[in-house]
Write a structure and sequence with these properties.
82 residues
Length: 82
């Protein structure tokens, strides 16, 4: 019988890491929210009559959306902001 590889040994020893790995690699995984997110943003773009690719439907803290320059919206960092 073959020995376990380095990665398999790591996941065997680290339950928390293994759980995240399984979640990330399962169907849906970390992108399970994507379809709902895309539907909401598409509807917001329609409501705001945004047709240009240089304009984003920017979600505001109160949950509403506004038309905003893509450059300004994405410069705030989004998911990478810590």
């Amino acid at each position: 019988m073959a020995e376990l590889g380095k990665t398999a040994r790591h996941y065997k020893k680290n339950a928390k890491s293994r759980a995240k790995h399984v979640k990330d690699n399962s169907p849906g995984g970390k992108y399970a929210h994507s379809n709902e997110y895309k539907r909401q943003h598409s509807a917001a773009r329609s409501r705001l009559k945004i047709r240009s690719s240089s304009v984003d439907a920017s979600k505001q803290p109160d949950g509403s959306y506004k038309a905003e320059s893509r450059k300004a919206n994405r410069a705030r960092g989004g998911a990478k902001k810590r």
